[in-house]
Amino acid sequence: MPIALFALAISAFGIGTTEFVIMGLLPEVAADLHVSIPSAGLLISGYALGVVVGAPLLTLLAARLPRKTMLVGLMVLFIVGNLISALAGDYGLLLTGRIVAALSHGAFFGVGSVVAAALVAPDKRASAIAMMFTGLTVANVLGVPLGTALGQAFGWRSTFWAVTLLGVIGLVGVALLVPPQPAEHNAGVRAELAVLRRPQVLLALLMTALGFAGVFAAFTYIAPMMTEVAGFSAGAVTWLLVLFGVGLVVGNLIGGKGADRRVMPSVYASLGALALVLAAFVVTAHGQVPAAITIALLGAAGFATVPPLQMRVMDKAEGAPALASAANIAAFNLGNAGGAWLGGLAIEHGLGYTAPNWIGALLVLAGLAVALVSGALDRRKQSVLVRS
């Protein structure tokens, strides 16, 4: 793999760390800034909103820029956002820093996926995308636990200083190692927006949203599920999250290898496996060993969907893939928010802590149904072309 992919992965590691590490620092942030835990929780929601807004907006605004220039600019924005967070003396400024950093998130992964795919031979594109996303998955295994420990030992601002440094390292890596890539020859707001009117692009975005709604319907409530149902101690949850993170890394790499061979069969297989794991989790959540195994499998099956879904969007957005690729990252975050909301609704209505698992399975099955429809449309089009 080209060394430029490691520069993209380091940047992804920093972005992934800043997205998720706040979850482990909410008590410290709330106490220091004199706000409630629910108010501190809005720092997570604000970040997600920034991703959803920033992904299409910044991609459109910079559509005519060379891709490397855009990536450098996005990393500068990421650094500025985390610098604001590190210096924040009040809640409002911290929320501002979170949103500024989030604006770069979706556009970076969207444009970065296009750049990564262009660095390798056509039959290695999905693996190249998976390599970049490895930075995001490793952030869950190393970045988040280490960032949480750092913040608990030296104050939450120290974590944001560390992430700012990661951003600087990523920026230098992108500037020095990523080769120049021009913008698409027909790039522009009109060309980029046009791809979002293609039915197959919209279907691919819907697959992503439904698939990750299923993952986060369950994962959002993993802590109470493990303590109240499986019987783990609160301290064991950290190690269960590490298991989930290891699953993410493995699944991401497997998904990349599979998508290099055939994209849509990989989509079918990964979504099907994810639905089975979530359905099984309804039962396995009642025992500690099976629950721990299922958590790792959930991470693996969940992120095995990422490379093939990202490739599907890029393939169907041929000619102007940057916006569609960034929109797919926004779809991930919309799915995360929607799945968490539905899972919480089930718990509030007294269906129990395992209810989010079967709700997640149903959401993923809906995503699989969309994928089957999309594949059928491909076969119909190919059949028409053959007859003509």
From TrEMBL:
<feature type="transmembrane region" description="Helical">
    <location>
        <begin position="322"/>
        <end position="346"/>
    </location>
</feature>
<dbReference type="Pfam" id="PF07690">
    <property type="entry name" value="MFS_1"/>
</dbReference>
<feature type="transmembrane region" description="Helical">
    <location>
        <begin position="266"/>
        <end position="285"/>
    </location>
</feature>
<feature type="transmembrane region" description="Helical">
    <location>
        <begin position="358"/>
        <end position="377"/>
    </location>
</feature>
<feature type="transmembrane region" description="Helical">
    <location>
        <begin position="160"/>
        <end position="180"/>
    </location>
</feature>
<feature type="transmembrane region" description="Helical">
    <location>
        <begin position="201"/>
        <end position="223"/>
    </location>
</feature>
<keyword id="KW-1003">Cell membrane</keyword>
<dbReference type="InterPro" id="IPR050189">
    <property type="entry name" value="MFS_Efflux_Transporters"/>
</dbReference>
<feature type="transmembrane region" description="Helical">
    <location>
        <begin position="229"/>
        <end position="254"/>
    </location>
</feature>
<feature type="transmembrane region" description="Helical">
    <location>
        <begin position="70"/>
        <end position="93"/>
    </location>
</feature>
<dbReference type="InterPro" id="IPR036259">
    <property type="entry name" value="MFS_trans_sf"/>
</dbReference>
<keyword id="KW-1133">Transmembrane helix</keyword>
<dbReference type="InterPro" id="IPR011701">
    <property type="entry name" value="MFS"/>
</dbReference>
<dbReference type="InterPro" id="IPR001958">
    <property type="entry name" value="Tet-R_TetA/multi-R_MdtG-like"/>
</dbReference>
<feature type="transmembrane region" description="Helical">
    <location>
        <begin position="291"/>
        <end position="310"/>
    </location>
</feature>
<feature type="transmembrane region" description="Helical">
    <location>
        <begin position="99"/>
        <end position="121"/>
    </location>
</feature>
<feature type="transmembrane region" description="Helical">
    <location>
        <begin position="128"/>
        <end position="154"/>
    </location>
</feature>
<keyword id="KW-0472">Membrane</keyword>
<feature type="domain" description="Major facilitator superfamily (MFS) profile">
    <location>
        <begin position="4"/>
        <end position="379"/>
    </location>
</feature>
<keyword id="KW-0812">Transmembrane</keyword>
<feature type="transmembrane region" description="Helical">
    <location>
        <begin position="42"/>
        <end position="63"/>
    </location>
</feature>
<dbReference type="InterPro" id="IPR020846">
    <property type="entry name" value="MFS_dom"/>
</dbReference>
<protein>
    <submittedName>
        <fullName>DHA1 family inner membrane transport protein</fullName>
    </submittedName>
</protein>
